[in-house]
Design brief:
There is one protein chain. With 344 residues, this protein is an alpha+beta fold. The protein has ten helices and six strands, in the order H-H-H-H-H-H-H-H-H-H-E-E-E-E-E-E. Strands 1-6-2-3-4-5 form a six-stranded antiparallel beta sheet. The longest helix is centred in the first third of the chain and has 67 residues. It is elongated. It starts with 11 loop residues before the first helix and ends with a strand.
């Protein structure tokens, strides 16, 4: 007769683990069933994030403009140095030729001395270091050799300076590429956010921007504030002529602008050269710390890092190129954190 064995009972530990796992599974299922679907950001939330990204893009844009300005300056300086080196080399060659002709004449008459032979076959610096040979040359020859030596030193210094500036230019170009990529990244991120909106929401935001922007023919009440100067008024009027022009990062006219591109372009139309970036413009003229002391045509600097600039237009208004997605327009000075004015 077969024996009947009692089935092996699971251990207490195994039961506890299985029970805990089952309970956790039930809890997760319940949570999943009861969890609300993730909410899509509202139109206003998206707009707020996009505005912040545009502000960050403008900050990077002013740094980009600074790198561009530095690159252009370095390129001009390097070109000038290289031209000077080329001219200097020609002068050096002429001096050497004249010494060579003098030596040749002496050679033909059999009067060339060993010191000139030394010069013609080696570095004249070595020659002048040997004081014992100086009395073998005429005063005219000594003077010519000194000029050659000075020209050689000058050329060596200029070549060294050009080399350093070329290194700086390479570094600046790297910085330029980095800042451009940063700006494009911010704008791309903003566009992705905008793409999450419905057509109706996009239209609503566009309508808000259209209401904020004033058409080129529309005037605002600028009050009776006197201009800072004739040149400042001329620059302001040039900027007025660009109302409605689109904001484009890195642009300085004549059909599109960023903030400092507009102000630098406008002053150029008035015959005044000012720096390209808002930070440099902030330190270019006389600072005006009280808004009540501002005059039409004064520059107005905004934000703690001075990354935005516009023209004071009178009656607490500024004329500026705000940011990507907008156009040159009037706006209340209170819409941005005022730092100070600058009278050019």
């Amino acid at each position: 007769m077969a024996s009947h064995r009692r089935p092996k009972q699971p251990s207490r530990t195994r039961v506890t683990v299985l029970t805990t796992a089952a309970a956790a599974a039930v809890a997760l299922s319940a949570n999943a069933a009861n969890a609300a679907p993730s909410e899509k950001p509202s139109k206003d939330e998206v707009k707020s994030k996009v505005d912040k990204l545009y502000e960050e893009a403008e900050q990077a844009t002013e740094k980009l403009n600074g790198a561009k300005e530095k690159q252009e300056k370095l390129q001009k300086e390097i070109s000038t140095i290289q031209d000077n080196v080329a001219r200097g080399q020609e002068e050096l060659n002429d001096l050497r030729d004249s010494m060579g002709l003098a030596a040749a004449a002496q050679y033909r008459t059999g009067s060339i001395d060993s010191s000139l032979q030394l010069f013609l076959s080696s570095n004249p610096d070595d020659y002048l270091d040997k004081a014992s040979t100086a009395d073998q040359l005429s005063a005219q020859q000594v003077d010519a050799l000194k000029k050659i030596q000075e020209k050689q030193r000058e050329l060596a210094q200029q070549r060294s300076e050009a080399s350093e500036k070329l290194k700086d230019l390479s570094s600046t170009r790297t910085e330029l590429a980095k800042k451009k990529k940063e700006v494009q990244g911010k704008l791309g991120e903003a566009q992705k956010l905008l793409n999450t909106l419905t057509a109706t929401e996009k239209a609503a935001i566009a309508a808000e921007e259209n209401r904020a922007s004033r058409s080129a023919s529309e005037r605002v009440d600028l009050g009776s504030t006197a201009p800072a100067s004739g040149r400042a008024l001329a620059a302001f009027q040039a900027a007025q002529g660009k109302i409605g022009s689109p904001y484009v990062y890195g642009a300085s006219g004549p059909s599109s602008f960023d903030c400092s591109g507009l102000t630098s372009w406008a002053f150029a139309q008035a015959g005044v050269g000012i720096p390209r970036t808002s930070q440099a413009q902030a330190n270019y003229g006389t600072k005006i710390y009280s808004q009540s002391d501002l005059k039409v045509g004064d520059l107005v600097i905004f934000y703690g890092d001075q990354h935005h600039v516009g023209f004071y237009a009178g009656n607490d208004q500024v004329l500026h190129a705000p940011r990507t997605g907008t156009v040159v327009r009037y706006e209340s000075i209170g819409n941005m954190p005022f730092q100070f004015g600058v009278r050019i």
